[in-house]
Write a structure and sequence with these properties.
By secondary structure, the protein is mostly helical. The protein folds into 3 domains: 50 residues; 99 residues, no CATH class; 41 residues. It has 7 helices and 8 strands, in the order ββααββαβααββαβα. The strands form 3 sheets. Strands 4-3-5 form a 3-stranded antiparallel beta sheet. β1 and β2 form a beta hairpin. α2 crosses α5. The chain is elongated, with a radius of gyration of 26 Å. It starts with 10 loop residues before the first strand and ends with a helix. The model has no long low-confidence stretch (mean pLDDT 84). One of its GO terms (cellular component) is nucleoplasm. GO terms for molecular function: zinc ion binding. It comes from Tinamus guttatus (White-throated tinamou).
Length: 233
Protein backbone atom coordinates (compact mmCIF):
# COMPACT_ATOMS: atom_id res chain seq x y z
CA UNK A 1 0.00 0.00 0.00
CA UNK A 2 1.44 3.38 -1.00
CA UNK A 3 -0.33 4.99 1.96
CA UNK A 4 0.77 2.97 4.99
CA UNK A 5 3.64 1.14 3.20
CA UNK A 6 2.39 -2.17 4.61
CA UNK A 7 1.57 -5.43 2.88
CA UNK A 8 -2.18 -5.94 2.65
CA UNK A 9 -4.43 -8.67 1.23
CA UNK A 10 -7.06 -6.08 0.20
CA UNK A 11 -5.41 -3.73 -2.26
CA UNK A 12 -7.57 -1.43 -4.38
CA UNK A 13 -6.54 0.19 -7.65
CA UNK A 14 -7.62 3.81 -8.03
CA UNK A 15 -8.27 5.59 -11.32
CA UNK A 16 -5.05 7.56 -10.77
CA UNK A 17 -3.25 4.16 -10.62
CA UNK A 18 -2.30 4.52 -6.94
CA UNK A 19 -2.75 1.33 -4.90
CA UNK A 20 -4.20 1.63 -1.40
CA UNK A 21 -5.42 -0.84 1.19
CA UNK A 22 -8.95 -0.88 2.59
CA UNK A 23 -7.76 0.45 5.95
CA UNK A 24 -6.23 3.58 4.40
CA UNK A 25 -9.26 4.13 2.18
CA UNK A 26 -11.69 3.67 5.09
CA UNK A 27 -9.86 6.30 7.16
CA UNK A 28 -9.25 8.60 4.20
CA UNK A 29 -10.42 12.21 4.56
CA UNK A 30 -11.86 13.91 2.63
CA UNK A 31 -13.82 10.95 1.29
CA UNK A 32 -13.80 10.60 -2.48
CA UNK A 33 -10.24 11.77 -3.11
CA UNK A 34 -6.98 9.90 -3.48
CA UNK A 35 -4.89 10.80 -0.39
CA UNK A 36 -1.74 10.80 -2.52
CA UNK A 37 -2.69 13.07 -5.45
CA UNK A 38 -6.27 14.24 -4.64
CA UNK A 39 -7.71 12.67 -7.80
CA UNK A 40 -11.46 12.07 -7.46
CA UNK A 41 -12.68 8.56 -6.61
CA UNK A 42 -15.91 7.92 -8.59
CA UNK A 43 -17.49 5.52 -6.07
CA UNK A 44 -19.73 7.23 -3.50
CA UNK A 45 -18.25 5.14 -0.69
CA UNK A 46 -14.77 6.41 -1.50
CA UNK A 47 -13.56 2.83 -1.97
CA UNK A 48 -12.89 1.65 -5.56
CA UNK A 49 -14.48 -1.58 -6.76
CA UNK A 50 -11.43 -2.65 -8.74
CA UNK A 51 -8.86 -4.84 -6.98
CA UNK A 52 -5.19 -4.61 -7.87
CA UNK A 53 -4.91 -8.16 -9.19
CA UNK A 54 -1.29 -7.69 -10.22
CA UNK A 55 -0.23 -6.92 -6.65
CA UNK A 56 -2.45 -9.70 -5.27
CA UNK A 57 -0.84 -12.18 -7.65
CA UNK A 58 2.61 -10.89 -6.70
CA UNK A 59 1.86 -11.34 -3.00
CA UNK A 60 0.57 -14.87 -3.61
CA UNK A 61 3.74 -15.81 -5.50
CA UNK A 62 5.90 -14.37 -2.72
CA UNK A 63 3.97 -16.47 -0.20
CA UNK A 64 4.67 -19.55 -2.33
CA UNK A 65 8.36 -18.66 -2.37
CA UNK A 66 8.34 -18.31 1.43
CA UNK A 67 6.74 -21.75 1.72
CA UNK A 68 9.42 -23.22 -0.53
CA UNK A 69 12.21 -21.61 1.50
CA UNK A 70 10.66 -22.52 4.86
CA UNK A 71 12.39 -25.17 6.97
CA UNK A 72 9.23 -27.24 7.39
CA UNK A 73 8.61 -29.98 4.84
CA UNK A 74 6.00 -29.43 2.14
CA UNK A 75 3.39 -32.09 1.48
CA UNK A 76 1.99 -33.11 -1.89
CA UNK A 77 -1.18 -31.19 -2.78
CA UNK A 78 -2.59 -34.16 -4.72
CA UNK A 79 -2.17 -37.28 -2.58
CA UNK A 80 -1.55 -35.35 0.67
CA UNK A 81 0.64 -38.22 1.87
CA UNK A 82 4.11 -37.95 0.37
CA UNK A 83 6.61 -35.11 0.62
CA UNK A 84 6.57 -32.64 -2.26
CA UNK A 85 9.51 -32.66 -4.65
CA UNK A 86 8.39 -30.34 -7.47
CA UNK A 87 6.17 -27.32 -7.98
CA UNK A 88 4.00 -26.68 -11.05
CA UNK A 89 3.68 -22.98 -11.80
CA UNK A 90 0.59 -23.52 -13.96
CA UNK A 91 -1.39 -25.63 -11.47
CA UNK A 92 0.11 -23.76 -8.49
CA UNK A 93 0.58 -27.10 -6.73
CA UNK A 94 3.33 -28.93 -4.87
CA UNK A 95 3.69 -32.52 -6.10
CA UNK A 96 5.46 -35.65 -4.96
CA UNK A 97 7.37 -37.71 -7.53
CA UNK A 98 4.51 -40.16 -8.11
CA UNK A 99 1.90 -37.44 -8.59
CA UNK A 100 4.37 -35.53 -10.73
CA UNK A 101 4.62 -38.47 -13.15
CA UNK A 102 0.81 -38.62 -13.40
CA UNK A 103 0.73 -34.84 -13.83
CA UNK A 104 3.25 -34.95 -16.68
CA UNK A 105 1.28 -37.66 -18.48
CA UNK A 106 -2.05 -35.81 -18.11
CA UNK A 107 -0.70 -32.41 -19.13
CA UNK A 108 1.83 -33.61 -21.71
CA UNK A 109 0.15 -31.54 -24.46
CA UNK A 110 -0.16 -28.36 -22.39
CA UNK A 111 3.53 -27.93 -21.56
CA UNK A 112 3.06 -27.24 -17.85
CA UNK A 113 6.31 -26.06 -16.35
CA UNK A 114 7.23 -27.99 -13.21
CA UNK A 115 10.50 -27.41 -11.35
CA UNK A 116 12.32 -29.15 -8.54
CA UNK A 117 11.97 -27.56 -5.12
CA UNK A 118 15.72 -27.83 -4.53
CA UNK A 119 16.35 -25.68 -7.61
CA UNK A 120 13.76 -23.12 -6.50
CA UNK A 121 15.25 -22.90 -3.00
CA UNK A 122 18.58 -21.92 -4.55
CA UNK A 123 17.00 -18.92 -6.30
CA UNK A 124 16.55 -15.43 -4.92
CA UNK A 125 13.12 -13.82 -4.62
CA UNK A 126 13.76 -11.78 -7.76
CA UNK A 127 14.81 -14.84 -9.76
CA UNK A 128 11.74 -16.77 -8.60
CA UNK A 129 9.35 -13.95 -9.53
CA UNK A 130 10.98 -13.52 -12.92
CA UNK A 131 10.81 -17.24 -13.69
CA UNK A 132 7.10 -17.41 -12.78
CA UNK A 133 6.08 -14.05 -14.24
CA UNK A 134 5.00 -15.37 -17.63
CA UNK A 135 3.51 -18.68 -16.60
CA UNK A 136 1.76 -17.74 -13.36
CA UNK A 137 -2.00 -17.57 -13.02
CA UNK A 138 -3.99 -14.84 -11.33
CA UNK A 139 -5.16 -15.70 -7.85
CA UNK A 140 -8.67 -15.16 -6.58
CA UNK A 141 -9.02 -11.77 -4.88
CA UNK A 142 -11.98 -12.78 -2.71
CA UNK A 143 -11.37 -11.78 0.95
CA UNK A 144 -12.09 -15.36 2.02
CA UNK A 145 -9.32 -16.71 -0.18
CA UNK A 146 -6.47 -14.44 0.86
CA UNK A 147 -3.11 -16.20 0.66
CA UNK A 148 -4.78 -19.54 -0.10
CA UNK A 149 -3.63 -19.77 -3.71
CA UNK A 150 -7.05 -20.20 -5.35
CA UNK A 151 -6.37 -19.84 -9.08
CA UNK A 152 -8.89 -17.92 -11.17
CA UNK A 153 -10.36 -19.67 -14.20
CA UNK A 154 -13.66 -17.78 -14.69
CA UNK A 155 -14.34 -14.15 -15.57
CA UNK A 156 -17.55 -12.29 -14.68
CA UNK A 157 -18.26 -9.70 -17.36
CA UNK A 158 -20.78 -7.90 -15.18
CA UNK A 159 -18.53 -7.49 -12.14
CA UNK A 160 -15.43 -7.26 -14.35
CA UNK A 161 -13.57 -9.57 -11.98
CA UNK A 162 -11.81 -12.93 -12.35
CA UNK A 163 -13.14 -15.67 -10.07
CA UNK A 164 -12.09 -19.08 -8.88
CA UNK A 165 -14.50 -22.00 -9.31
CA UNK A 166 -15.65 -21.84 -5.68
CA UNK A 167 -16.63 -18.17 -5.88
CA UNK A 168 -18.39 -18.73 -9.20
CA UNK A 169 -20.50 -21.54 -7.75
CA UNK A 170 -21.47 -19.46 -4.71
CA UNK A 171 -22.49 -16.47 -6.84
CA UNK A 172 -25.04 -18.18 -9.08
CA UNK A 173 -26.93 -14.93 -9.77
CA UNK A 174 -24.24 -13.83 -12.22
CA UNK A 175 -23.76 -17.21 -13.89
CA UNK A 176 -25.05 -15.94 -17.24
CA UNK A 177 -22.23 -13.39 -17.30
CA UNK A 178 -19.48 -15.99 -16.74
CA UNK A 179 -16.95 -16.95 -19.38
CA UNK A 180 -13.63 -18.75 -19.49
CA UNK A 181 -10.90 -16.37 -18.35
CA UNK A 182 -8.55 -17.47 -21.14
CA UNK A 183 -11.10 -16.52 -23.81
CA UNK A 184 -11.61 -13.17 -22.07
CA UNK A 185 -7.85 -12.59 -22.00
CA UNK A 186 -7.62 -13.44 -25.69
CA UNK A 187 -10.49 -11.06 -26.49
CA UNK A 188 -8.86 -8.28 -24.48
CA UNK A 189 -5.57 -8.87 -26.27
CA UNK A 190 -7.30 -8.64 -29.65
CA UNK A 191 -9.09 -5.45 -28.57
CA UNK A 192 -5.81 -3.94 -27.37
CA UNK A 193 -4.08 -4.91 -30.62
CA UNK A 194 -6.84 -3.23 -32.66
CA UNK A 195 -6.69 -0.16 -30.41
CA UNK A 196 -2.92 -0.06 -30.81
CA UNK A 197 -3.26 -0.08 -34.60
CA UNK A 198 -5.81 2.75 -34.46
CA UNK A 199 -3.51 4.76 -32.19
CA UNK A 200 -0.59 4.22 -34.57
CA UNK A 201 -2.68 5.53 -37.47
CA UNK A 202 -3.80 8.52 -35.42
CA UNK A 203 -0.22 9.20 -34.37
CA UNK A 204 0.91 9.07 -38.01
CA UNK A 205 -1.79 11.59 -38.93
CA UNK A 206 -0.74 13.91 -36.10
CA UNK A 207 2.93 13.60 -37.05
CA UNK A 208 2.12 14.43 -40.68
CA UNK A 209 0.06 17.44 -39.58
CA UNK A 210 2.87 18.52 -37.25
CA UNK A 211 5.43 18.33 -40.05
CA UNK A 212 3.13 20.32 -42.35
CA UNK A 213 2.69 23.02 -39.69
CA UNK A 214 6.44 23.16 -39.09
CA UNK A 215 7.06 23.56 -42.83
CA UNK A 216 4.44 26.31 -43.01
CA UNK A 217 5.95 28.06 -39.99
CA UNK A 218 9.38 27.87 -41.63
CA UNK A 219 8.02 29.44 -44.83
CA UNK A 220 6.34 32.21 -42.84
CA UNK A 221 9.57 32.86 -40.96
CA UNK A 222 11.50 33.01 -44.21
CA UNK A 223 8.90 35.36 -45.75
CA UNK A 224 9.05 37.58 -42.68
CA UNK A 225 12.84 37.72 -42.89
CA UNK A 226 12.75 38.62 -46.59
CA UNK A 227 10.13 41.31 -45.96
CA UNK A 228 12.25 42.89 -43.23
CA UNK A 229 15.21 43.03 -45.60
CA UNK A 230 13.13 44.82 -48.24
CA UNK A 231 11.87 47.48 -45.82
CA UNK A 232 14.13 50.57 -46.03
CA UNK A 233 16.15 51.13 -42.91
Amino acid sequence: CVGCKNESPNLKLLTCLHTLCLNCLSNNKPIGQCPMCRTAIPEASGIPDRDNLLFSSLQARLNIYKKIRSKGGLGCCRCQKEAAAVWCSECEEFLCLSCFEAHQWFFKKRSHEARKLDDLRAESEHQFLESTRRSCSLFCSSPGHNNQGHVTSIYCRRCEKPLCCSCALLDSQHSRFYCDIRSEIQQRQEDLAALSQDLKKTRSSFEAAHEALQAKAARLEQGSSEMQQQIPQ
